[in-house]
Amino acid sequence: MPRIFRSMLRDGDRPIVGPSAKMLGVRVPPEEKCDLSPDENGEVAPGTGGMSVAPNWRDLPDYRIPERLQYILPGARGKDNLSCWRMGNGPFEPGFVAEQLVLRPDATDHGMVEPDRRMLLASYILAIEATRDLWVIDED
User: Fold this and answer.
1) What are the phi and psi torsion angles at 69 (to 5°)?
2) Which of 24, 76, 86, 133 is the most exposed place for a label (fewest CB within 10 A)?
3) 94-134, pLDDT tens digit by residue?
């Protein structure tokens, strides 16, 4: 399973689930800025977008890295209510990250967690939410 990082809000020792770039989830229409859009049948497919992740928290955008981590990364300027979360331990390369979910790197420092096959948007969202207990805070 590839090691992936994402900056998210927390609820205790787990990320908050929801349709936001700061939560465990994806933005979909009618949001102005979407991570993916279902087709006319309400389905999403591999290669069409998904939840953004990075191979290391240091590769996240500066505005997603909490300011409290400026002692490690001087450009960090995110709000301190964010945490950097990690899931998996393998190399940042295409592969399954969880049941029904795959990583598709689209750059050396960015990738997307996408559906592994054509499925209903609701099923994809549930698959992402099912990973909630697999994420751990990693800010070292």
Assistant:
1) -95, 15
2) 133
3) 999 999 999 999 989 999 999 999 999 999 999 999 999 99
